[in-house]
Design brief:
By secondary structure, the chain is α/β, with parallel strands linked by helices. The protein has helices at residues 16-27, 47-56, 72-82, 99-111, 129-145, 162-169, 178-184, 208-222, 225-255, 259-294, 307-313, and strands at residues 3-9, 34-40, 61-66, 87-90, 117-122, 154-161, 189-194, 301-305. It has two domains: 3-206 and 297-313, Spore Coat Polysaccharide Biosynthesis Protein SpsA, Chain A (Alpha-Beta Complex); 225-294.
């Protein structure tokens, strides 16, 4: 098998068949052999019904059907496990990431044996200025505190050789952050620009709140800097509070008013808030250790439809 396309799906009934047709159109007479690995991430619409219909009429389609919604990270992991291609690409089903770009990626891997992965990044963002600002800030923060490099604007849309895919699969951690995993495993990655297209149908599944939570996953998963910041901040605040308390008491005694006392109470409340904040940060790390210690599976598949089984039955 030359290439596998891993396609996470969550409520994609309006676009999934169009995606299938566009892949067939783009790959016809250009790719010697390929497979599509669709992962239904607990969709609440008719996505799974459409995927099963596609599977019945195709000889190169696999379908992994989750027992519930486990998230895109789990869906990508399941798809990579099922992929058998020499090259494997993670691509969204909404056609914002075009299959024609995959052909460009494949051409690079075919002509340069030193490149292990071709990743696409958005050369020009089509998002709002506020969201773009926060995303850029996230990449700057991560690159300043993390041991692995995060390429600004790079997405999960990438084509990887089999050794890199195997390395990512071997990373069995429960809380997954693929951008970090792809950087952590290393390998020679070449970045190419691509233009994000409009969604063929439906709405984006990523709200600002979900993106924020995803960013927290990345920070907690790939750096312990927040724990160090908590320690230094605690020492600094204790020193400042002690000094301020002495000054406030002296001023209060001289002026015989309650201004100093109010300031002290305010400072105590502020420090209590800071303490709770850092306790929360520590709690995030402990929670991930706790969940990892349970050794629960990243996902549970209700059923897996493969074309090999159909051939055996025939």
């Amino acid at each position: 098998m030359k290439i596998s396309l891993v396609v996470p799906c969550y409520n994609e009934e309006d676009v999934i068949y169009d995606f299938y047709k566009e892949v067939r159109k783009a790959f016809e007479n250009k790719v010697e052999s390929y497979e599509l690995v669709f992962v239904n991430d607990g969709s609440k619409d008719k996505t799974i019904d459409i995927l099963k219909a596609i599977h019945k009429v195709s000889d190169n389609v696999k379908v992994v059907n989750f027992s519930r919604n486990f998230g895109k990270e789990a869906a990508m992991y399941a798809g990579l496990q099922q992929a058998t291609g020499e090259y494997t690409c993670v691509i969204d089903a909404d056609l914002q990431q075009r299959p024609e770009v995959v052909l460009r990626m494949m051409d690079i891997l075919d002509n340069d044996a030193e490149v292990d992965c071709v990743a696409a990044y958005q050369e020009e963002r089509k998002e709002g200025k506020v969201l773009t600002f926060f995303k850029d800030s996230f990449y700057k923060l991560m690159n300043s505190i993390s041991e692995v490099e995060f390429r600004k604007g790079a997405s999960d849309f990438r084509l990887m050789r089999r050794p890199m895919v195997n390395a990512v699969i071997n990373m069995t951690e429960y809380h997954r952050f693929s951008k970090g995993l792809f950087s952590f495993v290393g390998f020679n990655t070449q970045y190419i620009p691509y233009e994000v297209q409009e969604r063929a149908a439906g709405e984006s599944k990523w709200s600002f709140a979900k993106l924020f939570i995803y960013a927290v996953e990345g920070i907690v998963g790939y750096t312990t800097a927040p724990l160090k910041v908590a320690s230094f901040a605690g020492i600094g605040l204790m020193s400042a509070a002690f000094l301020y308390m002495i000054i406030a008491l002296i001023v209060g005694a001289v002026t015989a008013n309650i201004t100093a006392a109010i300031a002290i109470i305010t400072l105590i409340l502020f420090m209590s808030g800071v303490q709770l904040l850092f306790i929360g940060i520590i709690g995030e790390y402990l929670a991930r250790t706790y969940m990892q210690g349970k050794n629960r599976p990243v996902y549970i598949a209700k059923e897996i439809l493969t074309y090999e089984e159909e051939k055996e039955e025939e």
